[in-house]
Amino acid sequence: MASSAPSFVITGGAGFIGSNLTLALQDKFPGACLTVIDDFRSGNFKNLIGYRGDFVAQNLATLDWHARFGEEKFDAIFHLASITDTTNHDQFEQVHDNVESFRRILNFARPTKTRITYASSASTYGAVTEASVESNGAAPANAYSFSKAIMDNIARRAAAEFPDWIIIGLRYFNVYGPHEAHKGVPASMVYHLAQQMKAGQPPRIFKHGEQKRDFVYVKDAVEGSIRALDAQTSGIYNLGSGQARSFNELVDVLNKCLGTNFQPDYIDNPHAHYQNFTQADLTNARSALGYEPRFPLEQGVRDYMQWLYG
Fold it and tell me: Catalytic site residue 144?
């Protein structure tokens, strides 16, 4: 990205990853013209304290981009907005809002070939037992994952039709970090377990704690997202830590960071469709984006706990 004063739109910019990305872009490009679009369904204005840009409060599934922005030109659109609650089982709402929001963005950006970076999801891989590679077929287990798989399909179609139009999909793995507390139940297990332990309660995890996750710190997810500005061709890439760590390990790390000594309270898993394993193969993200995660679980959790509890 050559311009020192670029113009960016960030949808979902009041949400978890979106707000972290917005503030990081503001720091990296001090002269940038930033516009956040969010309807606050899974966002909070408090996440944007210190933000100096414009804000459009709109539902993206019904937003008329041309009526709102006219002939305004943007250097890039970061599309982070989504119904992020995977426990929302209203298939129409999940798929309609997530897919149609994206379709409206593509239709607006197509004439000018505005660069788009959008949030896909590691959940599109479904039940796996080894590291996921982007070429693996989608196997969505819920409506949220299905909506993301459809977004990937229409992004690939648009990129194939217009080779000079760069569209980057980012499959975020299990992101945790500052600005997620407002999400409630969908917030990361790192957050929920820390809250339980900080309150003097044993952390509650599913039996027997050996499920493994690719926990990626939000600062790494943001770094990878910004690196998408320099990608030379369209593509879909994994953004994770590249490591699968068990919930038992997470409890150990939290005990060390919080100065506690809790044993887990193992409970039955009520979910029929549960990802027992996630891990990002980062080969393509490294080569195409120059992405290299800087926060292994121990370092990311330590940084996050300092932010949460001082």
Answer: yes
